[in-house]
Amino acid sequence: MTAESAQCLTDFERAAASVLPADVRDFVAGGSGAELTLDANRAALDRVFLVPRMLRDVSHCTTRTTLLGRPVPMPVAIAPVAYQRLVSPDGELAAARAAKEAGVPFTVSMLSSVPVEEITALGGTVWFQLYWLRDSAQTLRLAHRAEEAGCEALVLTVDVPWMGRRLRDVRNRFTLPGHVRAAHLEARSTAHQRQAGDSALAVHTGQAFSSSVTWESVAALREQTRLPLVLKGILAPADAVRAAESGVDAIVVSNHGGRQLDGAAPSIDALAELAPALPASCEILLDSGIRSGTDVLKALALGASGVLVGRPVIWGVAAAGEAGARRVLDLLGAELRDALGLSGCGSVPAARQLRAYQKR
Fold it and tell me: Secretion signal: which residues (predicted)?
């Protein structure tokens, strides 16, 4: 399949599945436990229905908006995804180039297989994702490194005190190959050492990540950076309100793509519940399960400012490199414009006034 022949994001899912090694395919696709939340993310998005408005002039329909105060051509950012050199030799560089071309933010994972400096050197808007490490000083050093490299926001992921039990990886005894490493951590780690009855990545993150990250950690990071601060992994309205009170600039409503607590609420359901509780000063982004421009519109109608997209971009890179990731983003933009116009919305702000209901 060529990038140009793909007509929807799931075309890339099938193409990526046909070229990736089985264990890497499972690492990208899999969730935790019985994968109930992984499946529920899609099912919940499919239960959201929109009420389009008629007799509105949509001849000048635009997807342009802002994210974290910066103009973007559509309300989409690339989610942080670890170890992208598992799917392509260029890894994160392919996706970051595509993001720059599309004009959307690219989020560098702390577990990126390419250093942040190489990614920011490409230009474009770059955000940096952090996990809180057992060595909190190292966490803050990474935040400063990202700031010095030219990143424009920090995204602290708060739903991983340790890695969820991902049975596909456990059964595969998943291990990083020698040419792939966490570029911001040690050169070689337990992630490269096959473990008896476990995923090497789970063992590695269990050793590296702190399970005692708290709101005090958020406050410490807020004090140490001038960059916009985003908390990723929020599902409860009370946590969303506290995040806003803590001075964060945005939250990402996310269940980590179904890869952490199995049985956690679908992200779109959580969004509908918590969005009314947040002040306008705190942006809301949605992550987990976005597969089309119509999904983006549903998120906007339920209160999000935009969305993060992860797996589809990785499918694009796996199937066709930078051109594949670029086609994924082009399709999302075209689909969103189509959905906006057909719903009677000429702009993203108009979409946020659209009525949506969740069929049970």
Answer: none
Name which of 260, 344, 250, 255 is nearest 304 in CA terms: 250
Is the pLDDT at 81 greater than 70? The verdict is: yes
- By the 8 A CB rule, do 309 and 332 touch? yes
Q: Binning pLDDT at 50, 70 and 90, where does residue 47 land?
A: very high
Q: 235 near 277, Cβ under 8 Å? A: no
- CA angle in degrees (0–180, nearest 5) for 102-106-111: 150
Number of other CB atoms surrounding residue 71 within 10 Å: 10
CATH number of the domain bearing residue 30: 3.20.20.70
Give the separation between CA 83 and CA 68, rounded to whole angstroms: 26
C-beta atoms surrounding 276 within 10 Å? 9
166 is in an annotated binding site: yes
268 is known to lie in a ligand binding site: no
Is 291 marked as a binding-site residue? Answer: yes
What pLDDT, on the 0 to 100 scale, is given for residue 188?
59
The predicted structure's pLDDT at residue 353: 96
Q: What is the pTM of this model?
A: 0.97
State yes or no: is 204 an active-site residue: no
- Contact partners, residue 203, CB within 8 Å, separation at least 6: 190, 191, 193, 195
Query: Which of these is catalytic: 60, 192, 204, 256?
Result: 256
Q: What total of structural domains would you count in the chain?
A: 1
Query: Which domain covers residue 31, as residue numbers?
Result: 3-358
CB 289 within 8 A of CB 295: yes
